[in-house]
DNA sequence: ATAGGGTTAG
């Protein structure tokens, strides 16, 4: 007897109690059916709640005493309709407590994220009133909230209290277990056993959850086990297939995912979205876009997940025009996303626009996001960091409401990779002080900072910490350590890293080759390069840059030439401007700048700044004035603010004693506002600039240093060190007998301390600096009489030494 | 009365 409408019910006179009870029950049933399936209380249509209240009022007015099942129904409906206070009032009024009503309330609390409230209610219900479903609701509540351990605790309580778990229990328990971060294969196996024993394995939802669980496990053999579960299933639904696709995508096995995808029928939007995001994660952006086109042409509905993945594909593949087209399409077709589901799209748009260099557009989109989440903040932070706008990045970082691990990492690596290594280290300490856990990549950045600063001891401490965190097999951390040790002059430790790293990738090979090159083992470096090729590792453009540098350090000009040719012919890598620049640098250092000229002529493009810089530096070494000045002019045209040009040019002038021209260059710098502190390339003594080069034998002071270096070389070789490069004498003040030398290796510096200059002036190592392997850092040697400020040049900045104090506070 | 899948920041 279906009731026709609420009005007929309300018109009934309260004569027949049974009839009335039936009508009430039927109406409640009708309301329940009208509720949407998902218990998303917030978005429920209020008409249902209004009708419910009207009905309830009528029940009360009729003076009819409803029995327990009607009351429970009401509790359930109020809970589902989002009126939890009413539900709770009714529930509390009824005695004894009813398991079904309690279940409804627990579910409603859990659905609105109020897990503690749900739990308190759960604990209040005495054992005799409980049933399996009651436990199930608490388990699934925790599972949905992502709290695996608490869900499993309830499961254990349930077994202890002698309740039999059913298929719903296991579905909940398995999905709860899947939220546990460090998931052991054993753990999955135990749960699997329990499922088999309970005889619920053939329930589709249980098997689905089991497959998803196995795929979330870190163990390598899981794909096979998940597949076995899948194969044993008698019946599968579309979720089974989807779970398989999603699982393989998780494991980055995109081919297997695709095979499952191709086999399944009735593919709906979720699978397509999973495939697209899978392709994006594997870097196969064109396949991702192809999927997008296909699903579009078949008429699968595009939702916010689709758009998010596709936009991410465009952003990562550099397909900015395509990305903007998709953005335009979203605006045009104007699907009405609620703010919550629009958020990921807006987030990825921030990334898209900052990646294509439109950081200001990205910022505007970011500003327009109403409820920003950590992803939004990190997206704009990363955008600023990547375009080098560190000040803006820092401003964002400081006002961010919730700084998670990633935010710290991005800000730290932003500092380090923009020449602010010390700031990076400081921020790292702050992060640790606040108890935030670093990623392995955070360590990589911080360790790189130590490499830049040459603070070996600090680097070693970080190495120890990193092992405590269990990151010793991380590739990014390992590569960073290798590079850091090499830059700090600890070549043996770098070698050790290379040997013990479980996975050596091309970055590791390149880093090790570079390390050997920097330490003067050019031959060994190119042997290692050949070894890498022998191991079947395909050298990339960075590998060739590295090996060219190694040849450069060791003066292996012909070998360098050979690698350059081999890169083009054997590996089909088109040399970039950077490769040409290294080649020219190599020729220049060997005094073959004329050949460098020919190389420039053979280039398929116009020479850019890096080429002219290499030419200029080659000319400085060997005093080709005309070409050097021409190169400097080109550089001035291209990048007038580039301080290095001025230094190099003035070095050329100084090499031939044209002090007026040196002064002219300095004045030019001042006029053009070039910010460069007068460093060790020149020092004013009695208003006169003196810059000498070791190669320039015309000056008697230089001759003396030459002799010194010769003797030093012999001594060093006896000690087992190999002086690898030409020494550049930065500064000689004949009056005061002060000498500043730049060299490559920390160990060489130790050797220097043992020496006396031929003239009798003593040389003292004020500080055994750990210098950077890029060989730009300088070690200062000076006579005991020296008392004025000394400036040591570092890779990225200058350090001022005065009265034994260094401006950065790190070295002394 | 209770359950299972997909998206974004490096």
End-to-end span in angstroms? 93 Å
Query: What is the typical, i.e. mean, pLDDT?
Result: 76
Cα gyration radius (Å): 36 Å
Q: How many β-strands, per DSSP?
A: 9
Uncertain segments: 1-7, 9-15, 38-43, 677-699, 719-812
- Main sheet: which strands, in order across? 3-4-6-5
| Beta-strand content | under 5%
Structural class: mainly alpha
Features:
single chain, 812 residues, mainly alpha, 4-stranded antiparallel beta sheet, 3-stranded antiparallel beta sheet, 41 helices, 9 strands, 64% helix, elongated, disordered N terminus, disordered C terminus, DNA-binding, RNA binding, zinc ion binding
Description of the structure:
It is a single chain. The protein has 812 residues and is mainly α. Among the domains are: 1-127; 426-497, no CATH class; 700-806, no CATH class. It is 64% helix and 4% strand. The protein has 41 helices and nine strands. The strands form three sheets. The chain has a four-stranded antiparallel β-sheet, covered by helices on one side. A three-stranded antiparallel β-sheet has the order 7-8-9, with no helix packed on it. β3 (728-733) and β4 form a beta hairpin. α9 packs antiparallel against α10. The structure holds one DNA strand of 10 nucleotides. PPR repeats lie at residues 131-165, 237-267, 268-302, 373-403, 404-438, 505-539.
């Amino acid at each position: 007897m279906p009731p026709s409408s609420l009005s007929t019910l309300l018109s009934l006179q309260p004569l027949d109690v049974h009839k009335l009870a039936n009508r009430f029950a039927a109406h409640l049933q009708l309301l329940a059916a009208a509720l949407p399936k998902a218990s998303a209380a917030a978005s429920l249509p209020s008409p249902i709640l209004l009708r419910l209240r009207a009905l309830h009022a009528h029940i009360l007015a009729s003076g009819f005493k409803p029995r327990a099942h009607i009351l429970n129904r009401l509790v359930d409906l109020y809970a589902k309709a989002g009126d939890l206070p009413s539900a709770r009032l009714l529930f509390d009024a009824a005695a004894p407590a009813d398991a079904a009503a309690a279940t409804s309330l627990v579910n409603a609390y859990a659905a609105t994220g109020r897990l503690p409230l749900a739990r308190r209610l759960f604990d209040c219900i005495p054992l005799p009133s409980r049933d399996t479903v009651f436990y199930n609701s608490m388990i699934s509540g925790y599972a949905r909230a992502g709290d695996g351990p608490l869900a499993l605790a309830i499961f254990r309580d349930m077994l202890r209290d002698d309740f039999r778990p059913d298929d719903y229990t296991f579905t909940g328990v398995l999905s709860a277990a899947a939220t546990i971060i460090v998931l052991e294969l054993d753990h999955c196996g135990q749960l699997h056993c329990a499922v088999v024993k309970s005889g619920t394995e053939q329930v589709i939802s249980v098997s689905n959850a089991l497959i998803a669980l196995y795929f979330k496990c870190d163990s390598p053999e899981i794909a096979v086990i998940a597949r076995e579960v899948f194969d044993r299933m008698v019946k599968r639904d579309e979720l089974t297939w989807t779970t398989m696709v999603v699982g393989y995508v998780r494991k980055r096995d995109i081919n297997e995912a695709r095979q499952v995808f191709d086999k399944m029928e009735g593919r709906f939007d979720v699978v397509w979205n999973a495939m697209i995001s899978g392709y994006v994660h594997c870097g196969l952006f064109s396949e991702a876009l192809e999927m997008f086109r296909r699903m579009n042409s078949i008429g699968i509905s595009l939702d916010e997940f689709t758009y998010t993945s596709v936009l991410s594909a465009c952003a990562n593949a550099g397909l900015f025009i395509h990305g903007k087209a998709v953005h335009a399409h979203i605006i045009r077709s104007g699907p009405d996303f609620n703010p919550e589901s629009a958020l990921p799209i807006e987030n990825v748009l921030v990334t898209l626009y900052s990646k294509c260099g439109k950081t200001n557009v990205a910022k505007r989109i970011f500003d327009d996001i109403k409820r920003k989440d950590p992803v939004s903040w990190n997206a704009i932070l990363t955008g600023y960091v990547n375009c080098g706008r560190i000040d803006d990045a820092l401003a964002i970082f400081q006002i961010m409401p919730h700084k998670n691990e990633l935010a710290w990492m991005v800000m730290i690596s932003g500092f380090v990779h923009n020449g602010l290594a010390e700031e990076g280290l400081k921020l790292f300490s702050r992060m640790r002080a606040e108890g935030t856990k670093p990623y392995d990549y955070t360590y990589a950045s911080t360790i790189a900072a130590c490499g830049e600063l040459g603070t070996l001891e600090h680097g070693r401490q970080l190495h120890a910490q990193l092992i405590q965190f269990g990151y010793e097999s991380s590739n990014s951390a390992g590569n960073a350590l290798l590079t850091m040790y090499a830059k700090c002059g600890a070549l043996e430790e770098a070698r050790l890293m290379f040997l013990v790293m479980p996975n050596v990738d091309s970055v590791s090979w390149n880093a090790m080759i570079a390390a050997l090159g920097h330490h003067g083992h050019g031959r060994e470096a190119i042997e290692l390069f050949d070894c890498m090729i022998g191991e079947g590792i395909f050298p990339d453009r960075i590998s060739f840059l590295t090996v060219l540098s190694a040849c450069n350090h060791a003066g292996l000009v012909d070998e360098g030439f050979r690698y350059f040719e081999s890169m083009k012919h054997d590996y089909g890598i088109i040399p970039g401007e950077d490769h040409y620049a290294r080649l020219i640098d190599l020729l220049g250092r060997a005094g073959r700048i004329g050949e460098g000229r020919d190389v420039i002529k053979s280039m398929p493009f116009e020479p850019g700044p890096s080429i002219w810089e290499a030419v200029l530096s080659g000319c400085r070494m060997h005093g080709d004035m005309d070409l050097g000045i021409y190169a400097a002019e080109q550089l001035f045209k291209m990048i007038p603010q580039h301080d290095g040009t001025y230094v190099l040019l003035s070095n050329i002038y100084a090499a031939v004693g044209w002090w007026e021209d040196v002064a002219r260059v300095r004045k030019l710098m001042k006029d053009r506002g070039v910010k460069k502190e007068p460093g060790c390339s020149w020092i004013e003594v009695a208003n006169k600039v003196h810059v000498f080069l070791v190669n320039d034998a015309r000056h008697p002071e230089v001759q003396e240093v030459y002799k010194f270096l010769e003797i030093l070389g012999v001594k060093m070789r006896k000690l087992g060190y190999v002086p690898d490069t030409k020494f550049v004498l930065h500064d000689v003040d004949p009056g005061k007998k002060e000498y500043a030398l730049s060299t490559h290796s920390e160990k060489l510096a130790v050797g220097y301390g043992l020496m006396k200059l031929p003239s009798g002036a003593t040389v003292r190592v004020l500080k055994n600096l750990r210098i950077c392997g890029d060989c730009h850092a300088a070690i200062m040697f000076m006579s005991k009489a020296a008392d004025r400020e000394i400036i040591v040049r570092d890779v990225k900045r200058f350090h001022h030494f005065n009265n034994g104090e260094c401006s950065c506070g790190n070295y002394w």
